[in-house]
Amino acid sequence: MLDVCLLGTGGMMPLPGRFLTSLMVRYNGSNLLIDCGEATQIAIKKKGWVFKPIDVICFTHYHADHISGLPGLLLTMGNAERTEPLTMVGPRGLERVVNALRCIAPELPFEIRYHELTEPEEHLEINGYHITAFKVQHNVVCYGYVLEIPRGGRFDAARAKAADIPLPYWSRLQKGEVITAEDGRIFTPEMVLGPARKGLKVTYTTDTRPVPSIAAYAAGSDLFICEGMYGEPEKEKKAREYKHMTFYEAARLAAQAKPEEMWLTHFSPSLVYPENYLEDVRRIFPETHLGKDGKSITLTFDEK
Amino acid sequence: MLDVCLLGTGGMMPLPGRFLTSLMVRYNGSNLLIDCGEATQIAIKKKGWVFKPIDVICFTHYHADHISGLPGLLLTMGNAERTEPLTMVGPRGLERVVNALRCIAPELPFEIRYHELTEPEEHLEINGYHITAFKVQHNVVCYGYVLEIPRGGRFDAARAKAADIPLPYWSRLQKGEVITAEDGRIFTPEMVLGPARKGLKVTYTTDTRPVPSIAAYAAGSDLFICEGMYGEPEKEKKAREYKHMTFYEAARLAAQAKPEEMWLTHFSPSLVYPENYLEDVRRIFPETHLGKDGKSITLTFDEK
């Protein structure tokens, strides 16, 4: 079970009723945050989610609207008595930027571990989250993220019995452990598990032009969260200039990637009524939904 | 006419419905802000006040809840096409802290001028604001501020006529100008103005123990905005430890200073119902009011 919450939906500056775009997910007691603009901690509080289990913060890039809320969040996590290390992931410069911002949050009761992205694509695995960072195309180095929760194959009791595997090992094998029995025999998960089943996949990208690789990364996502800075079709030129996307460009990516659904976010402050453009966008990709502050979904493994 | 708005009333961390404590005033087309915690720009937008005319930002100190909103505010002021210089006032370290935070707001279309406070008391005059910064007692160097709009004496037409001052000079003398006439005669405002009349005075202090000098600075204010971190009388020990005040300590200062009214602010996140303590506090100083996000008042010169 993966809870996903779009904490805010604004780009550039936070507005009353439209906080800056960031994403929080919860899985197995561990929270992961992507981006942390000004007021993100208020959005978390408003949603009723908590600070202490935030184990990972990923950054797309270091424009202020994606990181300005960090010092306040770190202090609030400290006040929530977090002591476990926090992992931060982001483009080169991460430690330098975070340390500069921490001039107003110098003392924290937990360690920060930095993972700076240097390759066009990188993989990390933290607390069950399989994270793929992929470079996108903005006016500074910027990454999108794929978050996956893989799901192992079905346990086959008949095969376990046939291989004469003692019952106490069954659940350990199911969790993926390789076991050496007291009599020297070795049991592997492959002996008792069917082929891996469909897991959960969320793809998140903001602050980028609609480069084709995004569709490839987002392919088959349960949820594709994509920037849509402008709803007005005539703003495509502006989107090109500032390295953002229109709703239609996002929808064309989604039409290729075929996620279960797409949420648009990172609206320009000038875009007061994004709903005015929804009908047109759905002609390109019907499962387009507008992001809304606090909009959330719980993704569960298929019961098929 | 001086408009005063308490943008937020929280201390430590911003909450939904209770942003961090900061003050904005407007006088004669020039805005002055004291402190700028996370989400201050949202509070300004919510109030409907504007960013471009912010000419001065004063800081009490550099704990995150008083300055974390600065990079975002500066960018938003830049987006509002401000090009005039901005003056910042605050304790020693101002330029270093602001430059560190500006790692995420490096390019601004206006200049920043720094005034670092080094004396226990300093006076500045900017755009008609007479500012007195006074040192208070927190766990880091912290200042309170008195903002005054002085008011000249009444113009005495009879004296002007008696002194044979030509009519075109009258309004210039009234504005305080010293004039050398073409015939060499010198006219001074004192020749035509009565004694200075009562101006407007607002005193603002947060993050301090109730040292007696505060009452002296706040004496005779139209409005005294004072921190009240705790409403629960039993938290006086905590207030002493963290260098804050209870409502009752603030009210005792007000009882000495005798402002027209006092607004309490900078409530602890643990203080959910500050109104529960108001009756008791008013026994000490009847004109105590609870601050509320966006609470504002327009102060006008006495018409007596």
Structure description:
2 copies of one chain form a homodimer. The first copy, chain A, has 304 residues and is of the alpha/beta class. Helix content of chain A is 23%, strand content 29%. Chain A contains 9 helices and 16 strands. Chain A has helices at 40-47, 70-79, 94-101, 157-162, 170-174, 212-218, 236-242, 247-257, 278-284; strands at 2-8, 22-27, 30-34, 54-58, 86-91, 112-117, 121-126, 129-135, 143-151, 179-180, 186-187, 197-205, 223-227, 261-265, 288-290, 295-299. In chain A, the strands form 3 sheets. In chain A, strands 6-5-4-3-2-1-16 form a 7-stranded mixed sheet, with helices on one face. Chain A has a 7-stranded mixed sheet with strand order 7-8-9-12-13-14-15. In chain A, helix 6 (212-218) packs across helix 8 (247-257). Chain A is globular. The two termini of chain A are 15 Å apart. The interface between A and B is medium-sized, with 32 and 32 residues.
Q: In percent terms, what proportion of residues of chain A is strand?
A: 25-35%
Total number of helices of chain A? 9
Report the biggest beta sheet of chain A as strand number plus sense, adding barrel if it closes.
7 strands, mixed
Shape of chain A: globular
Oligomeric assembly: homodimer
Low-confidence stretches of chain A: none
Largest interface comes to:
A-B, 32 and 32 residues
What percent of residues of chain A adopt helix (DSSP H or I)?
A: 10-25%
SSE run of chain A: EEEHEHEHEEEEHHEEEHEHHEHEE
Structural class of chain A: alpha/beta
Mean pLDDT of chain A: 96
